[in-house]
């Protein structure tokens, strides 16, 4: 399986150009249908909306021509008015896209706020996987890290990454944090270090087995992979692992608490998504 219907949301910035280039690579690799979307702010005078729409249409046509100079496999273009995140979510549903590709959010010099940006809102409220592109593509993804918390959400994220074709030929490392619950009490009770270490070692083995079981349930365990385990806060562990592994792509899932809350929103995603340099595939639980 692979991505077959891709929507690229572009604001015609350099960040969006990277997203277009990555989507073009995926399209070429899997012969996928590709649509380029630009959203014009409709909260302005009609003449400005018209001028902005015409300019956007021209830029989208130029981008489509760069992707497919021959015009044999037409790249569709769309210009819509409205709130960017609402339009992107709605168009993704209209087109039955199986992947939304967007450029990374603007990184501010003094303070980087991820929550509230268009891409964060699309990730939080949409039902489609979102690929946030940070890097200029150099070919198919060769090294992929997958953050797992052993939930059904993680299973869906892993399954979706497989279905989109991102894991087929890549070296995959699964990242999982666990908390040896009795460790703190053992330290408080002043038990010997060897006893505590032996307990943590057993917990580590159990955590590894649980990760293996989840992976086997998703793909039968047929593909080769590595597992990296860590104790403590997921955000710090994921950031550190990404720095050390240097993957091309990080895969994470989102959890729909009361339908709107983000699994990694604020604590983990606001740290991970605004700091990692690799591309990130964010998968909602309904993918």
TrEMBL record:
Residues 5-133, 141-284 form the UspA domain. Keywords: ATP-binding, Nucleotide-binding. The keyword Nucleotide-binding applies. Transmembrane segments: none annotated. It holds the Pfam family Usp. GO terms for molecular function: ATP binding. Coiled coil: none annotated. It comes from the Bacteria. The keyword Nucleotide-binding applies. Belongs to the universal stress protein A family. This is Nucleotide-binding universal stress protein, UspA family. The lineage of its organism: Bacteria, Pseudomonadati, Pseudomonadota, Alphaproteobacteria, Rhodospirillales.
């Amino acid at each position: 399986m692979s991505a077959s219907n891709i929507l690229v949301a572009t604001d015609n910035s350099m960040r969006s150009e990277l997203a277009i280039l990555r989507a073009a690579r995926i399209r070429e690799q899997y012969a996928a249908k590709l649509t380029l979307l630009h959203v014009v702010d409709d909260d302005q005078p009609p003449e400005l909306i018209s001028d902005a729409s015409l300019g956007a249409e021209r830029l989208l046509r130029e981008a489509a021509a760069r992707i497919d100079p021959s015009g044999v496999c037409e790249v569709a273009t769309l210009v819509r008015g409205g709130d960017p995140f609402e339009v992107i979510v709605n168009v993704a549903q209209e087109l039955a896209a199986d992947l939304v590709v967007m450029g990374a959010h603007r990184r501010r010099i003094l303070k980087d706020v991820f929550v509230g940006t268009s891409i964060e809102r699309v990730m939080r409220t949409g039902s489609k996987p979102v690929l946030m592109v940070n890097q200029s593509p150099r070919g198919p993804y060769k090294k992929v890290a997958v953050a797992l918390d052993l939930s059904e959400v993680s299973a869906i994220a892993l399954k979706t990454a497989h279905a989109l074709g991102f894991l087929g030929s890549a070296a995959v490392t699964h990242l999982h944090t666990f908390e040896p619950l009795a460790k703190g009490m053992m330290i408080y009770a002043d038990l010997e270090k060897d006893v505590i270490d032996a307990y943590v070692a057993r917990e580590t083995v159990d955590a590894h087995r649980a990760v293996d079981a989840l992976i086997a349930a998703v793909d039968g365990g047929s593909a080769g992979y590595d597992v990296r385990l860590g104790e403590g806060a997921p955000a710090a562990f994921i950031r550190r692992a990404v720095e050390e592994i240097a993957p091309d792509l990080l895969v994470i899932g989102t959890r729909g608490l009361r339908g709107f809350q983000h699994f990694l929103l604020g604590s983990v995603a606001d740290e991970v998504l605004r700091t990692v340099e690799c591309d990130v595939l964010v998968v909602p639980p309904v993918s």
